[in-house]
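The pair is set out directly below:
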Amino acid sequence: MDPSVTKTAKATAISNSPSDMDILDRKLLNIIQSGFPLVDEPYVQIGEELGIDEAAVLERIARLRKINVVRQISAIFDTRRLGYKTTLVAMAFPREALHNAALVINEHPGVSHNYAREGSYYNLWFTLAVAPNEDLEETVNGMAARTAALQHRLMPTIRFFKIGVNFDMVNRKSAAFNYSPDGYDKGVSKDWNKAVALSEFDIRVIRELQEDLPMISRPFDAMAERLGLSNDEMYRTAADFQKRGFMRRYSAVLHHRRAGFRANAMAVWKVDEERAEEVGQIMASHPTVTHCYQRPTFPDWPYTHFTMIHATTPEGCEESVTEIAEATGLDEYLLLYSTREYKKTRVRYFV
């Protein structure tokens, strides 16, 4: 392992204290992040499961939004399946130029995640999605030129093994056990990178479902009315979207640091091609790994497998990495802690 993970990186990774939440808050968060109910009165249904009334559910979610534990409640779509082009981008900047460069990168509406990370030459990592008619490489080259990046690399997905962020808020541990929460066969699908055919009606519904859910008793009524559908017709359409493979789920997204998962590390691994799929499956099976991908290598970057790890402490991340290293027999890797979150949002499609 590269020894360049610094004390500063670790200190920054744990600088945000978890919010004060009681057991009902934690049970509530477990419910809404795994699958928010698509019913006329969802807060009533959630309350029945918790043994509290609708008003109490609304009050608790409103408070959790206010303190930024809950970021958003909406549909989560698969960018590639909607026809968008997407990639992870690594850029290198002098330390004194990093902050301003990150702010410029944030201006692009297709940037959904943007983190400063320590542990390698590349110190800014972001995900970018562009519409089908746009050129991904040209867009990144323009961003690099505009920010005077020292170096940049496009790192698109070669193989997909896992995506499934889930935090067990009651037991306070990452619980991404499912290899394929989004319907992939053992984390790998031949169709994961293929766009589906979308009608104008599909796009209209996507535009509605991707917006943040209002905090009112019957939040879906206005959506259905704008679409000219009954509520049940809209729910059936959402279920069809999931069956067709371009909508993952409808749920809440948490601010992981505010929720108590203060350490966020990207572990990158050097894996021989003949072991690429075997190792990817082993990595994906670990409950603290929320994302697992194979990406291309470069002369200055031999690391093929990327695993995102979330834990309540940096020590928890390191324990996970040790377990993965022992399970795979790998010893060439870097652990890149995020030291600042510049942007984390959902891409808004077809707007």
Notes: The chain is about 35% helix and 25% strand.
